[in-house]
Every structure is written in structure tokens, then in C-alpha cells.
Amino acid sequence: MSFNLKNKKVLVVGLARSGVSAVRLLLREGAKITVTDTAGKDRLADAISRLKGLNISYELGSHNLETFLKSGLIVISPGVPYKSEYLLMAKEKGIPVISEIELAYHLLKAPIIGITGTNGKSTVTTLTGELIKAYKRNVFIGGNLGTALSDAVLSDKKWDAAVAEVSSFQLETIKDFRPKTAVLLNITPDHLDRYDSMDEYVWAKARIFENQVKDDFAILNADDAYTSDIIKNIKSDIILFSRLKSVERGVYIKGGDIVSNIGGKDAIVIKTDELGIKGVHNIENAMASIAAAQLAGCPVEFMRQALKRFAGLEHRLELVKIIDGVKYINDSKGTNVGAVVKSLEGFSEPVILIAGGLDKGGDFAPLKNLVKEKVKRLILIGKAKEKIADAVGGLTDTIFASSLEDAVNIASHKADKGDVVLLSPACASFDMFRNFEDRGRVFKEAVNRLTGSKAQEARVKVGI
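^ thats the sequence. predicted structure below, dont judge the formating
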């Protein structure tokens, strides 16, 4: 694919964070840019302000098919469906349609570690970057995580590596994108409101390996149900990680230790109970990060302190507060059933689970056994609350709440010492909140307004 952008007419579709970065990079390369977004000027005021004074044409509030068909290249943001009729018609005319990561890939000089999967992407991206930094390397950490890959190109820094979270949405429209190391953490049902089937979702995720060659590395979860089929089409050097068994080449658990044999013999990296991040799924996340960092040249001995220090990211099994012996944990990033399964697996305490939100077409049945075994009470919110109640509500005491704040208040006076109140919604947030971060913030604010047993008794007396 030719990447001479000088004077090329480029249409950027979607003015989210990656869209703004793509525009800046395209301008630097001399392209003539039009931006289109179905949102209006008021909603996009912040993004537009970051591009103030630049030579850009805007078409906001709706799309103009003629603009799509007269473009030489179309760059789309992750939220733009690749099956959009405008994009399909442009493709029929031979106009390339690519994602922002494809654009950045062609202009970035550093080797890329690309990380995808249904759950754990942001944690593994950040932790991998921190491990490589511990080896005193200059590392860019970003991608779908928040700082677009294009920003790595725009920076004046000389990067030793770029660690990028990559979503299935971004992988849909890659052409040549080829990470030196590609990581696929896991696949569980998600985004089935966007994809027609699980097969299509798996196809999008597996594209991260599509352009790799034998000198590249592919890291996969040996315990994941989809791995054995995906491996059949991989041409690069395969490295596995496993929480449940030893692997021929990769990272695994041995007697309570995380062990890597990537260097040719077993090397103990760290004990699982010494990890700064807690939970069953975070053991898998740590193993994937260890493998990626070691393949990037970081010796095992440089990783230990960083693995002990790294406590995880906000809204991912984040301990908010302990009140009267009850732990309040914010897992707002648990936006699909698979994530909630992993979260619940990590608790031995009785759980009061707050779930619900906007259904993404998922099946809540996989929660049945864990709800029955571990969930003392289920408090449901949002548009999906009836669907969740139909699937698992009969297995435990189930309550509907009118809001997240209401759910926290109900949980606080239903909880006993030693319980965990867990927000892990299994749903998207957009029916009630701007995003999962906003939902997590509201949860934390509600928890921080609780003041212990006296406040709980007062709420009970007034019937809250």
C-alpha cells in the first residue's frame, strides 16, 4: 500500500481521540483533510478546539456520500462500523479504508508490541510497558488505551518500542499492520451488537497475526478455547502462557511460581502471591506481560520489582474502601460476561454483585454457577436488568435498583462484615453513563459518601 500522503485527499471519519491524532499526523505528512462525524459541532467542541487554526474542512452532523467517493484515502475511528454503507461504497470504488493504527504503523519506526483480547488489554499493555521501562528502555504506551498510536509518531522521542492496545474494531480494517510481537489474551463473547456472529468477532481479533512472518512473535493463552484453531493459521514464532498447565515454550505456573522457559530453561520470575495485581485473571495478565517483555529483550531479573509495584488500573478490580469490614470494589471495566466470570472466580468471600447496563448481545448463562456459588445478593440496574434476572436472578436474592447510587445504598445495608460489594456490570455503560470510567467514578463517589454502621442504620430507619 502506497503511503505518499503529500496532497492526497484524505477523509477522517469520526473525531474521537484517535481521529484528532490521525488528523494531526496526516497534516504533518502534507495531506488535504476533511473530517466527517455524525455528531454535531456542540458535541465535538473539545476535539475541534484541539485542531483550532489548522487547515481542515468539516462536515458534521451527517455524512455526505459524495465526499466519501471523492477521497483518495479514508481513515476511520474505532467506533465507526466497517460495514457502514458509505465505507462499503467507497471500497467498491477502490478507495482504501484503514484504521488509525494502520496509518500510524506505516510511519512509526519503532517495533510494535500489539495487545488484543476481550479482557485485560489495558492492564497488559500498561504492565508490559512498565516491565520494559524497568530495563531502562524508552517505551511508548498507548493505542486504544487512550493515547493514539499516531501520537507516538508525532512525538519527537526516539522509541525503543511501542506497546499498543489494539481493539477488534481497529483490526477490522488493517491492511499491512504487522506488530513485531502480537498478543491475544483471550476471547469471550462481546460486541455481538456489532458483529453478526462469534466467528466474525474471532476473525477480527485473530487479524492481529495476519501479516506476521516467521521472525515475529505470537503470544497466546493456552487455556483459551479458541487458541488451538487460531494457531493453525499463524506463521510467526508461537509463545504460550498458561495458568493451568506447563507449556513447551512460554510462561506458566509451577508450584506457586510464575516460570518462563522462553530463554531455553525454566526461570522463576515471581511468586503469584507477590504480584501487585490481584485476581485469577491478573495472573494470566502478568504472564502475558512477562512473555512480551522478555521477547523485547528485558531480562527476568529486571521484572520482579515492577511486578510487585504494579497495582493495576483504575476501574479494574479497584479496591475503593473498606467500611465496617465490607470491601467495596470497582470493576466498572467488567463490560462483558467473560470479565465478570474472571472477577468472581477470584473471590472466596461472599459477594454482593452490582450488575447491569446496556446489553451488548451477550449471553448471561455462563454466570449461573458462579452466581449460585459466590453471589450472596444480586443488585441489578440499567436496561439489561430484566434479561440478567431472567438468566440468573432465580439463583440468589435479586433486587432491582433505580440507579447505581441506589444500588450502593442497598448493598451497604444488606452487607455483613466480611462481604465484598462488587460493581462488575457485564454490560456497556451508555444507557446511564458516558463511559465505563464515568460509571466507575459514580460508584466510587457513592461509596465514599457511606460513613459506616450509623449511616446504614439511619438509611434503614427512613426506608432507603
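The radius of gyration is 23 Å.
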